[in-house]
Amino acid sequence: xxxxxxxxxxxxxxxxxxxxxxxxxxxxxxxxxxxxxxxxxxxxxxxxxxxxxxxxxxxxxxxxxxxxxxxxxxxxxxxxxxxxxxxxxxxxxxxxxxxxxxxxxxxxxxxxxxxxxxxxxxxxxxxxxxxxxxxxxxxxxxxxxxxxxxxxxxxxxxxxxxxxxxxxxxxxxxxxxxxxxxxxxxxxxxxxxxxxxxxxxxxxxxxxxxxxxxxxxxxxxxxxxxxxxxxxxxxxxxxxxxxxxxxxxxxxxxxxxxxxxxxxxxxxxxxxxxxxxxxxxxxxxxxxxxxxxxxxxxxxxxxxxxxxxxxxxxxxxxxxxxxxxxxxxxxxxxxxxxxxxxxxxxxxxxxxxxxxxxxxxxxxxxxxxxxxxxxxxxxxxxxxxxxxxxxxxxxxxxxxxxxxxxxxxxxxxxxxxxxxxxxxxxxxxxxxxxxxxxxx
Amino acid sequence: xxxxxxxxxxxxxxxxxxxxxxxxxxxxxxxxxxxxxxxxxxxxxxxxxxxxxxxxxxxxxxxxxxxxxxxxxxxxxxxxxxxxxxxxxxxxxxxxxxxxxxxxxxxxxxxxxxxxxxxxxxxxxxxxxxxxxxxxxxxxxxxxxxxxxxxxxxxxxxxxxxxxxxxxxxxxxxxxxxxxxxxxxxxxxxxxxxxxxxxxxxxxxxxxxxxxxxxxxxxxxxxxxxxxxxxxxxxxxxxxxxxxxxxxxxxxxxxxxxxxxxxxxxxxxxxxxxxxxxxxxxxxxxxxxxxxxxxxxxxxxxxxxxxxxxxxxxxxxxxxxxxxxxxxxxxxxxxxxxxxxxxxxxxxxxxxxxxxxxxxxxxxxxxxxxxxxxxxxxxxxxxxxxxxxxxxxxxxxxxxxxxxxxxxxxxxxxxxxxxxxxxxxxxxxxxxxxxxxxxx
Lengths: 440, 440
Known about the structure:
Two copies of one chain form a homodimer. The first copy, chain A, is an alpha/beta fold. In chain A, 27% of the residues lie in helices and 28% in strands. Chain A has three domains: 2-37 and 75-109 and 237-307, FAD/NAD(P)-binding domain, CATH 3.50.50; 123-233, FAD/NAD(P)-binding domain; 320-439, FAD/NAD(P)-binding domain. Chain A has twelve helices and 26 strands. In chain A, the strands form seven sheets. Chain A has a five-stranded parallel β-sheet, with helices on one face. A five-stranded parallel β-sheet of chain A has the order 9-16-10-11-12, with helices on one face. A five-stranded antiparallel β-sheet of chain A has the order 22-23-26-25-24. In chain A, a hairpin with a 1-residue loop joins β13 (207-213) and β14. Chain A starts with a strand and ends with a helix. Chains A and B meet through α8, β22 and α10 of A and α8, β22 and α10 of B.
């Protein structure tokens, strides 16, 4: 049996491992357009920001590791088309290749900014590590940077440029950073901290075009032109389904490939995983996509296992998330109020400010927790947090509480660790839940 | 209506607040033997260790706060006896005082070390803040300290003395610190770090007596005498039930006062809360006591609300815990393997070493997670962890997972935040759960 995997990101690598595990005797071939696999693109902003010494650190495995593990990886090799009825693909330089099972992990693209000048040289998109290495050298001589769109990657890059000492301009049409998903109570401290780091915040500002003679040297906005030595475009992620749609594989309302809970597509013998697919949200069952590398890896694993003849289901997601933003860490699960309101999901808000250690213990930090509670079911709809310590762990807690439909009363009166250097008498999530209970 | 509360610790303060809340018109009188209420005794070791500047910081509220809130607190006033049939107490200096409802929050005592010399002056027991202030002055001139018993307070005090630069000797009969509750895989790094901090570890060593002419100047052990300028006795906590037992109120197998889920004792009109009571363990229903200040406060609140005519139940406990120990933070929930084995609870162990951030992100730390899983129910029996970051939050997660009987499979394949500066691709608790699944 031959399993072909298209894409060398987290989904593709997960799929190759899953297929090999389920069918050790199968021939598993992975095609990637790029020069590398087995690195963490999520680390790129932190090399630019100098928190991480060098790009080489982002490689988790070298090529020899995959060779030794018996993985057949074809680098810088583009798959040009798929024929699902003949079960074959066209590969640049290889010609027609037959497959028994196919897994698509074709990832995502940045949404086209759709303004004049989008084809100028010098516009940088954070994605591939080799381009990042080249870009980092450009940064050494740059003085002024513009970051377009306060998406998660945009926020990480603006923070990184501030750390690096660049004059940084941050442009976004929303009222605050991450306004499409983040609530103002959570994002206000982030915006303030970005200003404190020296970032020039141009919120409620639309990009009208990119200016330059061949190479970009300014960004035209609704509030005037911003000259720039470097421009990062951090528009939203859209699923890369070029191969799939050309092959007649069905996509859904988000533009992502439709898959069942085994990650199988509408085409016989074809699975898909990662940012190119859409999956149901755990609470609403609404299809969503563009999640994290760990989601992609886990979906890839599921797709690979099933392509290899095994049987594994991928559960609907609650989407715990977290990131460093300015001098804060933010995170949450599922929906904030902005999205819940947009989706018409009934909810009551519980808001509380707590602290990370005993108030008398030096080094404590504030943690603001906002929980959304279904007033009928009295369970979580979602939550968002801003703080310094323990945000990732609390987001994981809330994701488990959502999945298990823990009553909000049980969160309000949860047992928590109290020890001065590591935890306050009152857990901030419990305080927010108590606040919500007061309104129910 | 008059509600009398005996004890000014977390349980008593919680009870007074609970009673006032449930019955705003009631007269609520709190008696305490001590000079103060409203401070955090849990912070004392960290003032000795110089992490916290001064003892005054441990006061959360001053006396005026309680006066302004209409709380009648009688300081340095000892309640000498209780007559539950007449509903009255004898108060030193006040005589007989009638009550309608009584709440006992009489706390705990250190277990008598039961060796010769236990009555020598200079033996220090960590408890009262005024004694701690005096002791801290003694520490300024001390060179050599002995800490007796590697209990939680003992570990905190040994760590504090090391931070303060004292030659510190730590004596305990067990094979490793906290051996009665902590498993060796968790406590070995702690023991090693205490050594690195310069603490002389005398494990498997029994105290034979305290030596000195009126004032202690050495500790006699099974491995020879240890001269000492200061000696801290950190034997285990035992419930202080003197008043209750003299009044015929029933105590249980741990020596603590027996209470129902509303914190009512066997005597009509009498409630009890905090370290003087025993409460059921969430999994085994075995009675336990000697928990944290947050447990005491919450129990006190429940007792006070019910004494005030309200209705509140206190849930069985899963006991998440956490503390700084040497250079590590340790924590867990419910039982470790040592206790589970002693209690004959069937279990499978899942053990894993994970990390707190992406491995390429500077400043990551190791997190070892050990989970105990019921092989039939496939749910948690308990867990223990050692690490630096996120221990308290993970212990809270595990406590919620135990209470909600989350299947171990759901922990193994939990969704977790992945972002390089705050969380690794693989959550350490999930890795430990996967390890356990492999054995099931």
